[in-house]
């Protein structure tokens, strides 16, 4: 990928190379992902569509793939850099983070450490992001820096995030079930 290309041009090529539709899947009514070989289908709701472009841009700029491991890495990266008012980003990234704890905890920790000195584009208008050259966008987000070693503060922050994510994904379904069955 040419670093002087705009993100708008680079994202098209990136999506094509990953087998992602040109619109990132925003036009689909339903989304199907495979987890442990099983298809999981859910509605492509507006809050999810609202994050697709910027989430894909973060994949492009960070180099994290669209495999399950890459989704766990980008989840750790986006959670630590913050997802702003985008609740769907918080939800999907925490799910990726949870899955990553099981399949790629070291890779996820490295992504989390990297994110400690970075930012992201959540909250920035898509049109202005699309106009930026790839190299300057990487610099702007801090993704042009070499990896650093984790500190005890990174370990502590990662542990807090891990406990919070596990707690959320255990407590939320239990609260829903309790409400459904009249226990709450």
Count of helical stretches: 9
Percent helix, as a range, is 55-70%
Summarize the main sheet: 2 strands, antiparallel
Element order: H for helix, E for strand: HEEHHHHHHHH
- Ends: how far apart? 53 Å
Shape: globular
Unreliable stretches (pLDDT < 50, length at least 5) are none
On the 0-100 scale, what is the average pLDDT?
Answer: 93
- Give me the side-by-side strand order of the main sheet: 1-2
Strand content: 5-15%
Tell me the number of structural domains.
Answer: 1
Number of strands: 2
Which structural class do you get from the secondary structure elements? mainly alpha
Instruction: Write down the Rg.
Output: 17 Å
Structure description:
This protein has 184 residues and is mainly alpha-helical. The chain has one domain. It is 61% helix and 7% strand. It contains nine helices and two strands, in the order αββαααααααα. The chain has helices at 7-18, 46-49, 52-62, 68-81, 87-103, 105-115, 126-131, 134-141, 152-180, and strands at residues 30-35, 38-43. A two-stranded antiparallel ribbon has the order 1-2. β1 (30-35) and β2 form a beta hairpin. The longest helix has 29 residues, at 152-180. The mean pLDDT is 93.
Please supply descriptive tags for the structure shown above:
184 residues; mainly alpha; two-stranded antiparallel sheet; 9 helices; globular
List the helices and strands and how they pair.
Blueprint (H helix, E strand, L loop, with lengths): L6 H12 L11 E6 L2 E6 L2 H4 L2 H11 L5 H14 L5 H17 L1 H11 L10 H6 L2 H8 L10 H29 L4
Antiparallel strand pairs: 1-2
């Amino acid at each position: 990928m040419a670093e002087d290309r705009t993100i708008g041009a680079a994202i098209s090529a990136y999506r094509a190379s990953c087998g992602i539709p040109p619109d990132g899947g925003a036009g689909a009514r339903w989304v199907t992902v495979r987890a442990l070989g099983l298809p999981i289908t859910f509605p492509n709701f507006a809050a999810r569509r609202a994050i697709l472009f910027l989430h894909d841009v973060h994949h492009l700029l960070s180099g994290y793939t669209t495999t399950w491991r890459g989704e766990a890495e980008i989840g750790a990266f986006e959670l630590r850099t913050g997802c702003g008012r985008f609740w769907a980003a918080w939800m999907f990234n925490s799910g990726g983070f949870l899955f990553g704890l099981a399949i790629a905890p070291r890779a996820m920790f490295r992504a989390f450490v990297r994110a400690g000195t970075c930012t992201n584009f959540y909250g920035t208008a898509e049109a202005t992001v699309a106009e930026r050259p790839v190299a300057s966008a990487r610099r702007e987000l801090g993704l042009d820096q070499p990896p650093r070693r984790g500190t005890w503060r990174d370990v502590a922050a990662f542990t807090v995030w891990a406990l919070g994510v596990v707690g959320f994904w255990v407590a939320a379904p239990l609260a829903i079930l309790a409400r459904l069955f009249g226990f709450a």
